[in-house]
Amino acid sequence: MAWLGMRGRKRPGRALPFPAGPHLRMAQLAKTAGFDSVVAFPEECVSELQSFKPQVLVAPAQALLAAAHAIFAGDLLLESIDVAIFVLIQIGDTPVPPPERDLIWRAFRVPVYELYVDSESNLLASECEAHDGWHLRSPNLQFFLEGRELLLCCPHQPPIRTGLTASCTDGRCACGDIAPLLRAVTENFKSLAASAS
Q: Which of 3, 43, 126, 146 is deepest in the core (most CB within 10 A)?
């Protein structure tokens, strides 16, 4: 099965999806920020994060887990985060397992959303506001299911195996977003085992 990735729409900027907005203080745990209106805080500058007082935090899962442990240990105080946490998942990475996601939520006490991005922080999919899957966001890609495995196709390139499984729905999502929705996104153990051998 194939879906066209939001063709006909204007290419989105590097803005974070709802509930983020340019009026908010947003920080990313990284050497450089991958999104508009987001300030980067490399690992050596994390102590400055407290004085910046971000309302939104963006980072890969491992960085967020490290920050969560620092919060529980009393080494990091980030009470200003009151809007959302965005977990960056690059192609080849897997969604955040429920125990780790719960740990991040317990540390920050705000909604946690997964963002599926490529190596240049181009947003490919973002977690539904209703936490019911990932809405497709890239206008230049085609998304395919081979069996249940999710494959990405760029023009003039072979398909990229993501190592993820998914199902889709063509109906309207409960959150009201009309973008195609990938449901039940999980790690595809069969695909990963084949690529390792």
A: 126
How far is residue 92's CA from residue 136's CA, in Å, rounded to a whole number? 17
**Residue 76 has which token pair?**
């990091």
- Alpha-carbon span 76 to 68, nearest angstrom: 8
User: Per CATH, which fold does 2-196 belong to?
Assistant: Rossmann fold (3.40.50)
The structure tokens listed for 28 are 């990313």
Burial class (CB in 10 A: 0-12, 13-18, 19+), 113: buried
The rounded Cα 183 to chain-centroid distance in angstroms is 14
Residues 25-75 have pLDDT tens digits of: 999 999 999 999 999 999 888 889 999 999 999 999 999 999 999 999 999
What's the pLDDT at 191? 46
**Of 7 and 166, the one with more pLDDT:** 166
The pTM assigned to this predicted structure is 0.85
**CB contact at 8 A, 140 and 153:** no
Query: What band does 189 get if pLDDT is binned at 50, 70 and 90?
Result: low
Distances in whole angstroms, Cα of residue 29 to Cα of each of 41, 45, 46: 5, 9, 8
